[in-house]
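Q: Predict the bound structure with pyridoxal-5'-phosphate.
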Amino acid sequence: MTRTSTAGVAPAPASRAAAGALDALDPLRGFRDRFEIPPDLVYLDGNSLGALPRGLPERLREVVAEEWGSGLIRSWTGAGWMEAPRRVGDKLARLLGAAPGEVLAGDSTSVNLFKLLALALALRPGRRVVLTQRDNFPTDLYIAEGLCELAGARLRIVDAGELLGALDGEVAVMSLTHVHYATGLIHDLPGLTRAAHEAGALALWDLSHTAGAMPVDLDGAGADLAVGCGYKHLCGGPGAPAWSFIAAAHHDRARQPLTGWLGHAQPFAFEPAYRAAAGVGQAMVGTPSILSLAALEYAVDLWLEVDLGAVRAKTVALGNLLVGLLASRCAGLGLSVASPLDGAVRGAHVGVRHAQGYAVMQALIAGGVVGDFRTPDLMRFGLHGLTTRFVDVWDAVEALRRVLLEETWRRPEYQVRAAVT
Ligand SMILES: *Cc1c(COP(=O)(O)O)cnc(C)c1O
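A: Predicted complex:
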């Protein structure tokens, strides 16, 4: 396998110094110092777990010691804990092209998918089909399967190229992931949203690999519903709260079924019957995870200083450098790029196949270059707009070249599969 085609790839810099020169010109270079990154690590997994923002431990210490320790129960109002899901949601809205009141922080992406898919079915009574793509992220498929079973709806799973043809009068909602978790291929969010609407269906977007990686305009595209993670590019911390977006046009027209007390219009009225809170507030279920929300909010505040257009330009350039260097430095070593070579339709990670991808990635990690692996043979290299440098890409490709030339991946310890890959 020597299919690292170079068609359409700009010539890559021929030296580490040339890559360093690109860093010197990077308008975002100052942001790397706002994160804690071990000095000898080449970290290319910010798309799975974003780096730790500097100052965040101190902020968490304050929330724990002062807001919790001293404020105790008074902090639900006194420290703004109760509003945190909406407040953080409003900040996230600015990164998503959404309006205040359309985004709520909380729960996991999986749980939010359940709530919003169910809401979509309720918004389109008479239509009982959820349409999705065969190689969507597994949780998106699994949650849709479980919900359809419960709701008596049908899940229609098709290949990406068949989506438009599958949009008929039965489809209540088309549920897609904007940036593919493995290949990084970007869907045309405005175009597919329009196609869904023309068929009378709603569009639900999973922006897990989008938020913090590129600008997105949910309201401009007329998107109906969206979800995404807080712990990937956004750097909100391991298991950070996810978020939900409900377009204002759909507020107060139907309700999602996880009718917990904090999604009630007046939780502290302690009424026996449920009445949904207005707007996106109905997506709230139970008591929010304040410590995790505080971490996410600290990270999101940092993001509010960032020009996402510059982030996008940089991650495209980093990706172009990566595929260019793979072609020039690793030709004939059994690699094939699974991501689009055209940066315009490639998100902020690059997938690279190798028959021994798992072992190769373990050897890379042992050498201080951290990416990850997706079965059966895909190594993923995440390019983070605020923390990845051009020299990191250079160093990663040189390390990969050495692992392949010296076949260090053959060592037995690199063959053992860990629980998290
Ligand atoms: C990472 C990811 C998720 C993760 O969902 P969790 O509920 O946070 O575990 C969901 N969808 C996509 C597309 C992802 O990339």
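A: Confidence is low (pLDDT under 50) at residues 1-7.
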